[in-house]
Design goal:
This protein folds into two domains: 158 residues, P-loop containing nucleotide triphosphate hydrolases (Rossmann fold), CATH 3.40.50.300; 61 residues, no CATH class. Helix content is 34%, strand content 17%. It contains eight helices and nine strands. The chain has a five-stranded parallel beta sheet with strand order 2-3-1-4-5. Strands 6-7-8-9 form a four-stranded antiparallel beta sheet, with no helix packed on it. α2 packs across α3. The N and C termini lie far apart (65 Å). The chain binds guanosine-5'-diphosphate and magnesium ion (MG). The site of guanosine-5'-diphosphate has 10 residues, from α1.
């Protein structure tokens, strides 16, 4: 077992070796995706995300076979490169776990079962806050929870090299790093250039707009306010940045019509 260190962070005492294949095991609503979010996005293979990629609906159970097929293809490619990988799915079925363990073995990577043993009542309660297509019926959640409890003692015999309870690892600091890294880069605190006068633009419109955005020296068009040109192909728009768009001091943007 290995303790690893994040840049600029205190050492974290975890039992998770790197690289490894981490299989989250827990009922719907137990917090799998929340735990998964403590690893970088590219390392997490979330079954609901693959359901959405093949069917536009992350809750579409009918698409499960296609979603699993696509997930396995990505998993193979990652493990062949010895890349840390987290499987965010309930993984409550034995055959599903057996496939994951066999794949990791074939590539010589250790396997970690990360068990998220949140109480069944809490998992059920959490369904209420979800969008309708993502709500899992109570009897299914309770069955998944019961399966999770039942399989834990046998996980080492199934071939998992490490079995870790979610309560036994420290990932909060890793999560804060994940969420603060892009903010630090935006501000230039990572030694890079930062976004400078594009910071507001990114926060207002999102990152997709940045490559298309150019501040223009055209404030006469906008009573002294800054003007930006957004161009995509032959299409372009001029926007004025208003420092007080509503008389209440709120910042906003207005489209300038010629
Ligand atoms: P999943 O279905 O297992 O992927 O569960 P999610 O990760 O989507 O979590 C379900 C809900 O519970 C979300 O609203 C989370 O924000 C919340 N949640 C999950 N884990 C925790 C936790 O450890 N603490 C708190 N406060 N909320 C949590
Ligand atoms: Mg989830």
């Amino acid at each position: 077992m290995k303790t690893f260190r994040l840049d600029n962070a205190l050492p974290l005492n975890t039992t998770i070796p790197e690289p490894s294949l981490i299989c989250l095991i827990g009922a719907a609503g137990s917090g799998k995706s929340t735990w998964a979010s403590t690893w970088p996005d590219t390392q997490v293979l979330e079954l609901d995300r693959f359901r959405a990629m093949v069917s536009d609906d992350g809750g579409c159970q009918e698409s499960t076979a296609d979603a699993v097929f696509a997930l396995q293809a990505v998993l193979e490619a990652r493990l062949a490169r010895r890349k840390m990988t987290v499987i965010d799915a309930t993984n409550c079925e034995k055959s599903v776990r057996a496939d994951l363990v066999a794949t990791a073995r074939r590539h010589g990577l250790p396997t970690v079962a990360l068990v998220i043993a949140t109480l069944a009542d809490v998992c059920v309660e959490r369904q209420e806050g979800r969008p309708a297509n993502r709500q899992v019926p109570e009897h299914v959640v309770r069955a998944q929870h019961a399966a999770m409890v039942e399989v834990v003692p046998g996980l080492p015999d199934e071939g998992f090299d490490y079995v870790v309870g979610a309560e036994g690892i420290s990932r909060l600091e890793a999560l804060l790093h994940c969420v603060s890294d892009s903010r630090r880069a935006d501000l230039g605190w990572d030694g890079g250039e930062g976004l400078g006068d594009l910071l507001l633009v990114r926060r207002y419109f999102g990152p997709e707009i940045l490559p298309l955005w150019r501040w223009r020296d055209a404030s006469v068009l906008a009573d002294g306010d800054r003007v930006a040109e957004v161009r995509l192909g032959a299409d372009s728009l001029y926007l004025a940045q208003r420092t007080d768009i509503d008389g209440e001091g709120d910042v906003g943007f207005e489209v300038l019509v010629a």
